[in-house]
Amino acid sequence: MAKESERLHLSDGQKSRLLGFALDADKPTVPPDENEQRGDLLYDLLRCPLPVREAPCNADVLAANGSHSGLRSVFGPSIRELLQDPKTDVAMLQRVKEYAKTLGRNAGSDVEKDVFLAVYFAAIAAAMVFHGERITEHVNADLARFLMSYARAIWMPPNLVELFVKAGERSADSTGVMHTLG
Fold first, then answer.
1. What are phi and psi of 48, to 5 degrees?
2. Mean pLDDT across the chain, nearest whole number?
3. Which of 14-18, 22-26, 29-33 has the lowest mean pLDDT?
4. What is the pLDDT of residue 2?
5. CA–CA separation, 61 vs 33, rounded Å?
6. How would you label 4-34 residue by residue, b for 16+ Cβ within 10 Å and e otherwise?
């Protein structure tokens, strides 16, 4: 059971909510707060593969389709895998960044904008950490601030927190200004 749970890439909060649904099936559910919505949407987006070429994917499609992980061989690696794999080339990370930017332009809520921006900055962070390359024109001080802000977000999965911290430290090193996680 533990391996199955880990493969779903659910946060502890999401696991607790699912268990609560099962245990209190008769009670009306409380809608998730905005941070839970951000976390849920982010996890859904990270499970999706990068579209072949800019086929629009929005929050409604993500919620309806769920995970495509069973079709990985057809659709390619998930966005999560692309962001975490040091072997993902910079051109692919640039595609992830542009895809998230496109989704952000069409976002229907602040929750969606926050999630799409998180993926946008995660792609930038991955290029910096894994390849030492910049795929953004943001100045280092601003970039370090954005990255550390996402590292502090309570809805951010731990693996992306680590990526944001490493990239934030690299950005801060070149500016002389350190933005701590505390």
1. -75, 145
2. 81
3. 22-26
4. 55
5. 21
6. eeeeebbbeebeebeeeeeeeeeeeeeeeee
Q: Under DSSP, is residue 78 helix (H, G, I), strand (E, B) or coil?
A: strand
**SS3 assignment, position 123:** helix
Residue labelled with tokens 């962070």:
125
CA-nearest of 175, 133, 132, 170 to 148 is 170
Count of helices and strands (H, E) across the chain: 10, 0
pLDDT band at 16 (very low <50, low <70, confident <90, very high): confident
List, in sequence order, every residue forming a beta bridge with 78; answer none if it has no partner: 49
Confidence check: pLDDT of 48 > 70: yes
- 79: tokens are 């966005």
133-155 confidence digits (pLDDT tens): 999 999 988 999 999 999 999 99
Degrees to nearest 5, angle at CA 156 with 152 and 159: 100
Evaluate if pTM is beyond 0.85.
no
Closest to 165 (Cα-Cα) out of 128, 135, 131: 128
The CA–CA distances, whole Å, from 14 to 42, 110, 116, 159 equal 12, 21, 20, 16
